[in-house]
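Lecture notes, unit on protein representations.

Consider one protein chain, 216 amino acids long.
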Amino acid sequence: MLAYLKGTIEGREITGGPVDKVLLDVNDIGYELNMAHASALSVGAVGDAVKIYVSVAIRETEWTIFGFKSPHERQLFNVLQSVSGIGPKLALGCVGALGVETLVEAILSDNPKMISQAPGVGPKVAQKIIIDLKTKIEDFARSLQMEMDGANGDGSQSASNKLIYEEAIEILANLGYTATEIHQAIKKVKEASNDVDSAEEVMRLSLKILGSAAKG
């Protein structure tokens, strides 16, 4: 089955929901990919040559191709579907709204409140995700953490920051921000600086980003 596609982005359809569509031209064949909103916007601009990881869902009447920015997104998407009642669109919404790191941390830390912020996921489904996947996700989390530590060049710093970001994410959620808003803000904070000293600093930077997004 397909693992990824390399081609040129020909267009995007922003639906206003958690799942958008990206049209990818691969050797003059157009593939319509269903992608999480955040990934569809950040994978590249129209006209860019890109590599998109994919997973194909086959039903009696249709084939649907789901696209991802990274192999970790694709892997977590597939793992989520091992939970009874979680189909591909709901799995994509979870990964897209929360992001890989946040979703994995929520599962491992028994945080159904964070998971239930994903579109279409209620408290009962969130708890079921945790129960069914906590053991399965541990190896995946270790692999992900090792890659993050390698990229940061400092595993101890990454471990320390993890607790800081977890606290900030929970506070932002309590303030009423959606999982998508929190994920995007935290992602920008991490990109801007890894040297944060406290959850309060992460909060300050995140609120500044969220405020700018609201004005925009």
